[in-house]
Design a protein that fits this description.
Layout lengths: L8 E5 L2 H4 L33 H4 L3 H15 L3 E5 L2 H4 L10 H16 L3 E7 L5 H7 L6 H16 L6 E5 L9 H5 L10 H25 L4 E7 L3 E3 L4 H23 L4 H9 L8 H7 L5 E5 L4 E3 L33 H15 L3 E5 L17 H20 L3 E7 L19 E3 L11 E3 L1 H11 L10
Parallel strand pairs: 1-2, 1-10, 2-3, 3-4, 4-5, 5-7, 6-8, 7-9, 9-10
Antiparallel strand pairs: 11-12
Helix pairs in contact: 3-5, 7-9, 13-14
Bound molecules: 6-O-phosphono-beta-D-glucopyranose.
């Protein structure tokens, strides 16, 4: 049976705004995550009125020791977390950082080190300071590059001896679909022009490349990657028009990885810019900065999608943050996300063929409405089946020759969902007694999948049940 490589980084992935809570403690400022009572498509309520789920989330801020001990019990080699920008620079434009915020992450990384868990840290996971949205216009404003650079330099320097793996912007390609949380442009203030959106994206590209450069200068041993939402697009039919449409939609993701991995804008985007009257305002240094390419490509993977040139069939499929056409061959999760383990092998091969850089799967998992049975247990066999099937495909890709650094499943402990802002959409190996109506004791309970994942890690994948 094929094996996962020695040193494979098994673990889980979290984001500060979905677990920490303590949204106004320790000197923290408000971020875009704190003003969305009903998830990313709901109203933006700024300043917040009353309490929202994310304000306390699962109280990881106070309970991280207990949670890390549970991750260590599963044998985690790696934990992906993010640093909330607003804990370090509450408004985003201060001259000096908030020491209390830095101290929190110091303690978190120290505790991880105690357990031998390697941190993989996202600089920006939908956590932009609200002040920068309101006063600067988010990433549309070039000045935000410098403010982000200050934040990045601060944390690279402070955690130089504690963090060896970094990611710049979470799912950076979702700037095309979720502008408020990604690039800090309010969707409730009228139409967002393509010109404005792509200019903001350009600023993020420069900030990301600049972070890569700084990271390498500050700690030459550290590795830094980009992060995209990987949703492979299949043509709905073999009609060449559908094939071209699928290629076009795939490029909406590849564009972002291309700039990060190749260090310049790809040829195909120029026609798109021309036809849509988009002119990117670039400064002289930008092209030079962009040449600082990432060490690896990371991505989230939950689903694939279909594309068609037939406008009538182009109906929405309620799939993640993207509007994609349903694949008739695939089942869906309770939230309508289409489950496609083979698509993960396909994606790994596609990216590796294109970039020949190491890949890291930094999110994958099943959101489900878990229930506690009469014995107080959570029998989440559906989650075990989902993860098992995906990991079998990762192993196939490794056998295909793809260099895969690791796998961090999304939400190893239940957390607040991003798209819908719910608690009942649970991903964890660990259940958290916390509910949509803000009730709950925050008690942690191991699910059946906890024991399963522990065995998978312990055996370096050999207990997976894969079709031979
Ligand atoms: C990714 C995000 O889009 O998907 C995470 O990086 C998010 O923040 C995850 O939680 C799952 O999405 P959701 O909406 O089910 O929480």
């Amino acid at each position: 049976m094929n094996q996962f490589p020695q040193g494979f980084l098994w673990g889980g992935a979290l984001a500060a705004n979905q677990v920490e809570g303590a949204y106004n403690k320790g000197g923290k400022g408000l971020s875009v995550a704190d003003v969305l009572p009903n998830g990313i498509w709901g109203p933006i309520v700024y300043p917040p009125q009353g309490e929202y789920l994310k304000h306390q989330a699962i109280d990881f801020y106070h309970r991280y020791k207990e949670d890390l001990a549970l991750f260590a019990e599963m044998g985690f080699k790696c934990l992906r977390v993010s640093i909330a920008w607003t804990r370090i620079f509450p408004n985003g434009n201060e001259e000096s950082p908030n020491e209390e915020g830095l101290a929190f992450y110091d303690a978190l990384f120290d505790e991880m080190a105690e357990h031998g868990i390697e941190p993989l840290v996202t600089l920006s996971h939908y956590e932009m300071p609200m002040f920068l949205v309101e006063e600067y216009g988010g990433w549309t404003n070039r000045e935000v590059i410098g403010l982000f650079e200050r934040f990045a330099e601060t944390v690279f320097t402070r955690f130089k001896n504690k963090v060896s793996y970094w990611l710049t912007f979470n799912e950076i390609n979702l700037a095309l679909h979720a502008p408020f949380i990604s690039i800090g442009i309010r969707h409730d203030k009228g139409e967002i022009l393509q010109q404005v959106r792509y200019q903001a994206i350009h600023h993020q590209f420069v900030a990301s490349a600049s972070a890569v450069k700084m990271c390498h200068e500050i700690n030459p041993d550290a590795k830094i990657g980009c992060m995209v939402a990987g949703v492979p697009m299949y043509p709905l039919t073999p009609d060449p028009s559908d094939v071209l449409e699928a290629q076009k939609q795939e490029r909406e993701t590849l564009f972002f990885a291309d700039v990060h991995a190749r260090g310049h804008y790809p040829a195909y985007i120029k026609r798109f810019f021309k036809e849509n009257n988009i002119t990117i305002d670039m400064e002289e240094r930008d092209e030079e900065i962009l040449k600082h390419t990432v060490d690896f490509i990371s991505f989230s993977y939950y689903m694939s999608g279909c594309a068609t040139a037939n406008e009538e069939l182009n109906v929405q499929s309620n799939a993640n943050i993207l509007n994609i056409v349903k694949n008739p061959y695939l089942p869906s999760s309770e939230w309508g996300w289409q489950i496609d383990p083979k698509g993960l092998r396909y994606t790994l091969n596609m990216y590796y063929d294109r970039y020949e850089k190491p890949l890291f799967i930094v999110e994958n998992g099943l959101g489900a409405n878990d229930v506690i049975n009469e014995n107080g247990e959570i029998e989440d066999d559906y989650r075990i089946d989902y993860l098992n099937a995906h990991l079998c495909q990762v192993r196939e890709a490794i056998e295909d020759g793809v260099e895969v650094m690791g796998y961090t499943s999304w939400g190893p402990i239940d957390l607040v969902s991003q798209s819908t802002g719910e608690m009942k959409k649970r991903y964890g190996f660990i259940y958290v007694d916390r509910h949509d109506d803000l009730s709950g004791t925050f008690k942690r309970i191991k699910k059946k999948s906890f024991h399963w994942y522990k065995q998978v890690i312990q055996s370096n994948g050999s207990t997976l049940k894969c079709e031979e």
